[in-house]
Amino acid sequence: MNYFYNPVRTYEGEGTIELLSDVINSMNLSSKRVLIIGWCEKVLENNAFLKLSQTGCEVRSIAFTASNPTVEQLFEVYENTKDFAPDVVVAVGGGSIMDVGKSLCCLYGKDIDNVDMLREVIADKKFLGPAAKWIGIPTTAGTGSEVTCWATIWDPQKNAKRSIEDSENYAYAALVDPDLAKAMPVKLAVSSALDAAAHAVESYWAKRTNCASRAFALHAIKTIMGNIDSLLKGEEKSHEFMAQGSMLAGMAFSNTRTTACHSISYPLTMHYNIPHGAAVSMLLAPVLKMNAESIDGIEALLDALGVKDADMLKERIESILKQSGQPVSLKEWGVKENDLDMLAKQGITKGRADNNPIEITEEKVKSILESIY
Questions:
Q1: Tens digit of pLDDT for each residue in 7-17?
Q2: Which of residues 132, 150, 178 is at a domain's end?
Q3: Are residues 114 and 200 in the same domain?
Q4: Is 208 helix (H, G, I), strand (E, B) or coil?
Q5: Taking Cα atoms as reference points, which of 73, 75, 69, 101 lies closest to residue 88?
Q6: Residue 168 shares a structural domain with residue 252
Q7: Position 56 in a domain
Q8: Sign of CA dihedral 106, 108, 112, 115
Q9: Is the pTM of this model over 0.85?
Q10: Domain range spanning residue 112?
């Protein structure tokens, strides 16, 4: 029997970032060492962060500019901040920043001397509870990471995608302020939105789905797909819908995890740097077609997507990608046809592939990759 659980205090709306000081004060900390990790130097200049020092907090701020953080990059940030031993980590950015921020909470207080030791800690799940709390402030609308308890850390040297997860490592709070996403380029905004839509779709059909997550998923899909044309036109109001949709999708898959689409997408991003949202969105239609007969309530899912079948969804996704200036096939992204066997083999990820409603094999994955090549 599946059940729903999500303890994150979630604040959503324009100007929500101004609540940060009040939220930290509500945590009743014995000390107030706050580490702010942001996706660029400029975002760290936001007045909400500058005010923290005026409320008795000891603040250290760092910028982390890389996408898809690696174990080496995570270790470097850990080395540079472990002496500060923060009580709270405030992660400000997209999924990459959230992944680093929540990972740090699980690593502080442990003796990790080098990258190989970090790999061992992650592989053996030697977390024993987070040593710090964290607050998520998303500046993109795609990952929903502010309301989940796991983080993705990449390890290209070992051809691996690693996961740091602890059921006690949900954020203390999420401040979802659509104002922070308005400066995103359309291409990034669309890629992020499609990632969020994929989270919701996969949550809907996942083996671990439940009635609450399915309700969140359908609302998220309708919110995103029903307003993505406005996003393509650059309408400011669309960012609030994308922020809401991403948060709702995060709530949905925080309990169910993702499935085949995400599993197959990981090596595409790792080896060819295809933006995660673009990679996973290209896989939605072929995986929907594969799963169709095993999806309970498929009519409601198709209605939320605004399509009649998988073929129509493929056309819809391709149109969205094209309008945002992104390729719509693996070949256009520079994927080599000779690599499809390798990509199919690496596209079966434990915890994702086996959460799909039907079994996926290397042969099925290769067929899916060929259908979008």
A1: 999 999 999 99
A2: 178
A3: no
A4: coil
A5: 101
A6: no
A7: yes
A8: positive
A9: yes
A10: 9-178
